[in-house]
Structure prediction request, 228 residues.
Amino acid sequence: MSISSRTARTVRILGVASASAALALGVAGNALACNIRDFSAVASCDNGKGSITVTDKDASRKEATVSVYLEENGADAKKVGEKTVTGSKDGAIVTFSEDWAANAKYRVHIDVDGILNQDLDILTAPSKACATSETTPPASESTPPASATPTPSATPSPSATPSQAESTAPATAGDNSPSPAAGSSNLAETGASSNTPVIAGIAGGLVVIGGGAVFFGMRRRGSASKSN
Prediction:
């Protein structure tokens, strides 16, 4: 039985169409398949606290396990955390709290059961760390003011002050004469002496005698003149 040219042409057309459909389905399937390019990570700050955010844009909505590790010298220093996320076309987000240091490096591992088991590119934190929300306590609360510290007194010690015995000049050796009294020195300055009362008494007596003599003399002269 021979096949006509018309039938052969129809078969060829159907084959090409089938191949094109298979290719289109394959491309669509690859587009929907979970891929490492569907994931991204970033280190950021939220209200002064550090965090690492991983976004999953897997349109096939596969569940993925996300693990984050702090890297030091090319090795895992510590495990920051591990969480699961279900991808979405718009992007599903999972966040890890981490007070990262400036330029710190992190390894982000993605595991989708039976499909994907791969690391993202090494994540490097920004060159400036998050600003802390805590404020430094005032100096008056943390450190006592300088004026509150007692200072040593400027008053010299008693030993520095010379004693009365030291400040008084010592008496001259061999001088046994008594020192003059304070009263006699004042009398010498005014010209008085201890004989002043005696002299004053004698002078008073002479005045009285002279006055009496004058009185009697005048009286006697008056009597003589009357007798003449």
The longest strand covers residues 75-86. The radius of gyration is 65 Å. The chain has five helices and eight strands.
